[in-house]
Design brief:
This protein is of the alpha+beta class. The strands form 5 sheets. Strands 2, 4, 5, 7, 8, 9, 10, 11, 12, 13 and 14 form an 11-stranded mixed beta sheet that branches. A 4-stranded antiparallel beta sheet has the order 15-16-21-20, with no helix packed on it. Strands 19-18-22-24 form a 4-stranded antiparallel beta sheet, with no helix packed on it. A hairpin with a 2-residue loop joins β4 and β5. α4 packs across α11 and α9 packs parallel to α10.
């Protein structure tokens, strides 16, 4: 038996029993419902519950496979890899009873996860009524997972069921995921299914399983903060309220205030509780066959970029291992420009953006840069169609081999030339352009490590950066603030990613 299948069975057997009550009726895992999309070109696990020892058969198209329920009632079978199919078919599961799923398609399945910017529904966009009216596409289907926190890995979770996108159903779909899916469906011509599992305001610690979280170098600090919160909940709640009042008063007077935010007074069952969103909203989905993951999160970790740089790759690696599908694609959104109210340094989001890029060291990862389409005054920027399409461009190029531009300029190095620095980039075959004016978001520093604003000019596919305050530059940064005026693009209209040449 392949190792991946052994892993799936071990994972299922490790999940807690839902009930000691005997179940006469056969049941299916939560993602197997009418209108489902199954992943093409992969073995497709189908699993559920039945009475111990029950003979189970699963039939779909020209396949019929069988198994026997384990002593605890769990069972799992695997359909052989299938090509994409837009013609609907029935999936039948037979034991002592029979379940028939109708209108099942085969295509591409992606998991969309993260926090509020992934969670924002299509009904929230400008001109939502007009946009929703034009969404009719029965070959794009969403299944939204209910907000569920759990103290241990759950076996099942409530979902919306698979909903073909129509003007009647589209309003609840994730904006980012919809534009991602619609672009894939248009370019690939196959059904696209989105499993949407996100929670607004969630920290990354909530999406990482307990074992992985405890194995990180960040764990002692995370655990200390968590235990402190639990032990001092009433006082912390009061401290947080007082801090919030103080900050609002100081900001109203135009004065800087304390930047250290007390731990948010939220305990178990919240989007901050350690591992509880993994337990409630990810574990029940495994090992459903999928192509990859799109991710939009990080805003709630803005104060601790150093931890995020370790936690984010750790989460990706853990999810991949748990699914048993190898290094499946994992594409994420780098945070846009936003004026973090409680940050007088105006740089914490720059450090968090850099922390996100550490995930690019892992194979089969990709990043959609959005430094040009945020809103300095709104943590929920409205320009989400661009975000979804940029994620789709990454996926189409890197996963499906569809020709097209998918990345803006990426920093490749900088060399000193007299009193200037020459900056080189990758992804500039279409040239470099500065929208409206010379690029204003560059800074230079000398040996004293103090950065000063610099002027920049485009020289073919490089940028020359100078500053009268830095006659002997040794380091250059671009867009290294919360809300930079970032106007450097390539000829394809994709923005340059923020960068720094130093490691200070």
């Amino acid at each position: 038996m392949p190792k991946s299948r052994v892993h799936f069975i071990a994972l299922l057997l490790a999940l807690p029993l839902a009930s000691a009550t005997a179940m006469a009726d056969i049941t299916l895992a939560p993602l197997f419902r009418d209108h489902a999309v199954l992943q093409r070109n992969q073995a497709v696990p189908v699993w559920g519950r039945a009475d111990p020892g029950d003979k189970i058969t699963v039939s779909f198209r020209d396949q019929t496979v069988g198994t026997t329920a384990e002593a605890d009632g769990r069972w799992i079978v695997y359909l052989s890899p299938m090509s994409a199919a837009i013609e609907p078919a029935e999936l039948t599961v037979t034991g002592k009873t029979t379940i028939t799923l109708s209108d099942v398609l085969v295509g591409e399945v992606w998991l969309a996860s993260g926090q509020s910017n992934m969670n924002r529904p299509l009904s929230s966009v400008p001109d939502a009524e007009k946009v929703i009216a034009g969404t009719n596409n029965p070959f794009v289907r969403f299944n939204t997972v209910a907000l569920t926190a759990a103290t241990s890995p759950a076996e099942t979770v409530e979902t919306s069921g698979w909903l073909p996108v129509t003007p009647e159903t589209a309003g609840t779909a994730s904006v980012v995921a919809w534009y991602f899916a619609a672009e894939l469906q248009r370019k690939l011509g196959v059904p696209v299914g989105i499993i949407h599992s996100s929670w607004g305001g969630s920290k990354i610690e909530a999406w990482i399983d307990d074992r992985t979280l405890r194995s990180t170098k960040a764990w002692p600090a995370i655990d200390e903060r968590w235990q402190y919160l639990i032990a001092n909940y009433p006082r912390i709640e009061a401290e947080y309220a007082a801090w919030e009042t103080t900050m609002k008063d100081l900001l109203a007077k135009g004065q800087p205030g304390p930047t250290t935010m007390p731990l948010l007074p939220r305990g178990h069952g919240s989007p901050h509780a350690l591992s509880e969103l993994f337990n409630g909203m990810i574990a029940p989905l495994q090992p459903y066959a999928l192509r990859g993951v799109i991710w939009y999160q990080g805003e709630s970790n803005w104060e601790r970029a150093g931890e995020y740089a370790e936690l984010f790759p750790a989460m990706i690696s853990a999810w991949r291992a748990q699914w048993g599908l190898g290094d499946f694609p994992f594409y994420f959104v780098q945070l846009p420009n936003y004026g973090q109210t409680y940050d007088p340094t105006n740089r914490t989001w720059a450090w968090l953006r850099e922390a996100q890029t550490t995930a690019l060291k892992l194979p089969n990862t990709g990043m959609a840069v959005t430094i040009d389409c945020g809103d300095p005054k709104d943590i929920h920027p409205q320009n989400k169609p661009v975000v979804g399409r940029r994620l789709a461009a990454v996926a189409l190029a890197q996963t499906y081999g569809v020709p097209g531009d998918w990345s803006g300029p990426r920093f490749a190095g900088a060399t000193r030339e007299g009193s200037a620095m020459r900056v080189r980039f990758t992804h500039v075959d279409t040239g470099l352009i500065a929208a409206g004016k010379p690029p204003p978001a560059f800074e230079l520093a000398g040996a004293d490590r103090t950065f000063y604003p610099a002027t920049a000019s485009i020289d073919r596919d490089t940028v020359i950066v100078k500053s009268p305050d830095v006659p002997e530059p040794v380091a250059v940064r671009y867009a290294w603030s919360n809300t930079p005026d970032a106007n450097l693009f390539n000829g394809a209209g994709l923005p340059a990613a923020p960068f720094r040449s130093d490691d200070w």
